[in-house]
Amino acid sequence: MGYIEYHVADKIATITLNRPEAANAQNMQLLDELDAAFTRGASDEDVAVIVLRAEGKHFSAGHDLKSGTPAPEKITLDWIYAAEARRYLEYSLRWRNIPKPTIAAVQGRCIAGGLLLCWPCDLIIAAEDALFSDPVVTMGIGGVEYHGHTWELGARKAKEILFTGRPLTAEEAEKVGMVNRVVARADLDAEARALAAQIAEMPSFGLRQAKRAVNQTLDVQGFYAAIQSVFDVHQTGHGNALSVGGYPILVRLEEMKTKIK
């Protein structure tokens, strides 16, 4: 069973997260399929813009820590580091640097690992009901693996969201510049496609250069180095969890997700 749908029409590739029964939680198969879809869109000469969307009520409940994960007593720090470096850090950085404009259309909950899907996109359109959150500080870890919080929210808002674990509304996200625009839930797909269609008419070389210019400016300011270094710091949280016996973080995260309807 596949968890990703891919469709191309009018120079727009639409990638759909299609695991609504699990609030589009990201197991390893979903992330591998998503990476393949982004790679396909990036290399397709008939594609000018890529739109990432999700089926169901929620964009993504984050990492699925049950599917494909060893039993808690068998988890090692080496396993965690390797798995997260590939699927949570390297994938997100690769998606960020796709040489074509990308748009994320977000509705409902976008929790922790869900941020690793929308933040690498160039533009974000959010439905009015969208809620963005990273509650992993409550489990003893300083934030998700692709730690774009400061860049996306600004330092003080990033600290507020991390320190409290509360969700950021779509309206708040737009005010701080994390979201480009907020639309009615019923209009989300149409608005994302309309923006993609507008961008698709621009010269592809100019779009590529503009994206590269902005991303390189952020990298000169320290984005790439910060993402890499904070990822290593992130791993100390896992080491702490392992040191206290078992892996209670897995249990607590899954308990939180069962409350999402």
Automatic annotation (TrEMBL):
<protein>
    <submittedName>
        <fullName>Enoyl-CoA hydratase/carnithine racemase</fullName>
    </submittedName>
</protein>
<dbReference type="GO" id="GO:0003824">
    <property type="term" value="F:catalytic activity"/>
</dbReference>
<dbReference type="Pfam" id="PF00378">
    <property type="entry name" value="ECH_1"/>
</dbReference>
<comment type="similarity">
    <text>Belongs to the enoyl-CoA hydratase/isomerase family.</text>
</comment>
<dbReference type="InterPro" id="IPR001753">
    <property type="entry name" value="Enoyl-CoA_hydra/iso"/>
</dbReference>
<dbReference type="InterPro" id="IPR029045">
    <property type="entry name" value="ClpP/crotonase-like_dom_sf"/>
</dbReference>
